[in-house]
Amino acid sequence: MAGRDHNRTEVSTGGAIAALAVFGLASNILSLSAPLFILVVYDVVLPAGSTETLAALLLMLAFAQIVQSLVDLSRARILARIGARLRQAAPAPAVFHGRTDSTPGAGLLQGLLSSPAALQALDLPLLPIVLCALFLLHPLMGWLAVSGMVLLAAIRAAEWRLAADPAQRLEVLSAQSASDMARAATAAPFLAATGQASATALRWKAIDSVLSHGHLRLSDIGAMSTILARGLRGFLQSAAVALGAWLAIRGQLSGGAIVAGSLLLSRSLGPFEQALAIWPSACRAWRFLRQSAPAPTTRRPWQAGAGIEAQGLTVRPNGLCILDDISFTVGPGQVMLVLGRSGSGKSALIRAIAGAMPLDQGRLTLGGAAISSSGAFARPSLGYLPERPVFGPGSVAEVIAGWGAARSAARAAGIEGAILSLPQGFDTPISTAEDILSGGQLRLLALARALSGNPEVLLLDDPDPGGDAEARAVLFAALRAARERGACVVVAARQSTLLPLCDLVLILEGGRARAFGPVAEVLRDLPRHHWQSAAGPKAGAA
Ligand SMILES: Nc1ncnc2c1ncn2[C@@H]1O[C@H](COP(=O)(O)OP(=O)(O)OP(=O)(O)O)[C@@H](O)[C@H]1O
């Protein structure tokens, strides 16, 4: 079905491009009516002194201009619709490690194709014909147009060179300012209370002042190039008339050809100049079109009997080794507890399995499917409770429902009642829910998201930080249920409270595996003081 829609979009876009080409040809032929009119008035009407011919010619010109306006309007509408269609066909934004792509590119593409400059630049393919006409009038006319184009291109090239660095710095700063504003908006109620409000305002003001200087510099560069180009165009137009007059004095050109030459020159420079103006945006849009690939949406089939297999997992963000050569296997229906002190690498390991942290070395397979080292996201269904709950945009129901229904997951995590008491229940925007729900309730919300759709892999990072008896009972029930339905579960914790529910234990120390195996074996082989110290002072409380 999606494939048929895609084909229909391609066919209709193809038809629209063909219509654009036909209308473009018609518009350019019709645009020759004005120079032709002047040529005939000077060379035929004036010598013959015929007012009837003049009136008939004027009527024909008016008709041609009306038709051309209608044709141009159709071209603008078709072009804008191609832009909208391309934007709709673009994949949803792919978000990887703080970078958001695709929507800005899709918006840029639509904005570009809807601009009057793009419409004028569309005539660029007909430039050789206009140039030929100028060379036919007189070779010097042709060369004047060519040298004008070279000078216009040189002005724009100088602008791009001068603006490249400031524009890049401005882009980085704008993104930083936007992210600061978003962070400040989230933390707004606490900024004054923690004494950060004035520091935040000062920081914003400092960035904004640099932004303002950057914009000023860019606008100076842009204005200089635009005014230079406009001046050059005006001069070239007059130069064409002067050249025509000089040629007419020497008897090499007629009076009408002088004006026709000047008009043809402006027709050749117009599309060229507009094409130069939109060139940087067109390059960015082209890069976007080449890069955008549909995000994987399908759930990978789980190979029966397979679990999680990790061999030599190594993670070195910025060259610093935080996970070193970790290997383990978790079968279906098994729960592995990752135990270690603060900073030993538990969260890093959970993130690496979840695909939220790229592997630098090692092999990881989930349900028989290898996860690529780039942290690629095509994989079996996976429930992940991060150490700090982070939610994407949407309503409570939308952020919970990952692979399955929101309501049953909320019930399994024991948070259904709290959600129903929110102003709009499951339809409450998550930003409102975050202001209302307690820290513990938000963790349960994140647990509900992890449990949604009964995932084949369940990764829980520090699911029991507070030791609240009710929350712990919910967690124990969820773990038992996951185990019974054959899920592979990995739980990271600083304490051994969950040990009685676990089949395997992996003890981490400074990013390395201190011990791994069935719980009973590890506890027997490892001297008690070792796993106690690895798990922190409360280890052994179970
Ligand atoms: N992206 C990163 N870049 C550099 N270092 C990192 C990165 N992520 C984690 N680390 C470092 O790796 C080490 C392990 O971090 P991790 O969050 O996995 O610890 P943890 O065992 O989960 O600790 P805790 O129990 O306190 O949550 C820490 O020293 C941390 O600073």
From TrEMBL:
<feature type="transmembrane region" description="Helical">
    <location>
        <begin position="54"/>
        <end position="71"/>
    </location>
</feature>
<feature type="domain" description="ABC transporter">
    <location>
        <begin position="308"/>
        <end position="535"/>
    </location>
</feature>
<keyword id="KW-1133">Transmembrane helix</keyword>
<dbReference type="InterPro" id="IPR003593">
    <property type="entry name" value="AAA+_ATPase"/>
</dbReference>
<feature type="domain" description="ABC transmembrane type-1">
    <location>
        <begin position="18"/>
        <end position="281"/>
    </location>
</feature>
<dbReference type="InterPro" id="IPR011527">
    <property type="entry name" value="ABC1_TM_dom"/>
</dbReference>
<keyword id="KW-0547">Nucleotide-binding</keyword>
<dbReference type="GO" id="GO:0005524">
    <property type="term" value="F:ATP binding"/>
</dbReference>
<dbReference type="Pfam" id="PF00005">
    <property type="entry name" value="ABC_tran"/>
</dbReference>
<keyword id="KW-0472">Membrane</keyword>
<keyword id="KW-0812">Transmembrane</keyword>
<dbReference type="InterPro" id="IPR027417">
    <property type="entry name" value="P-loop_NTPase"/>
</dbReference>
<dbReference type="InterPro" id="IPR036640">
    <property type="entry name" value="ABC1_TM_sf"/>
</dbReference>
<dbReference type="InterPro" id="IPR003439">
    <property type="entry name" value="ABC_transporter-like_ATP-bd"/>
</dbReference>
<dbReference type="InterPro" id="IPR039421">
    <property type="entry name" value="Type_1_exporter"/>
</dbReference>
<dbReference type="InterPro" id="IPR017871">
    <property type="entry name" value="ABC_transporter-like_CS"/>
</dbReference>
<keyword id="KW-0067">ATP-binding</keyword>
<protein>
    <submittedName>
        <fullName>ATP-binding cassette domain-containing protein</fullName>
    </submittedName>
</protein>
<feature type="transmembrane region" description="Helical">
    <location>
        <begin position="126"/>
        <end position="152"/>
    </location>
</feature>
<feature type="transmembrane region" description="Helical">
    <location>
        <begin position="16"/>
        <end position="42"/>
    </location>
</feature>
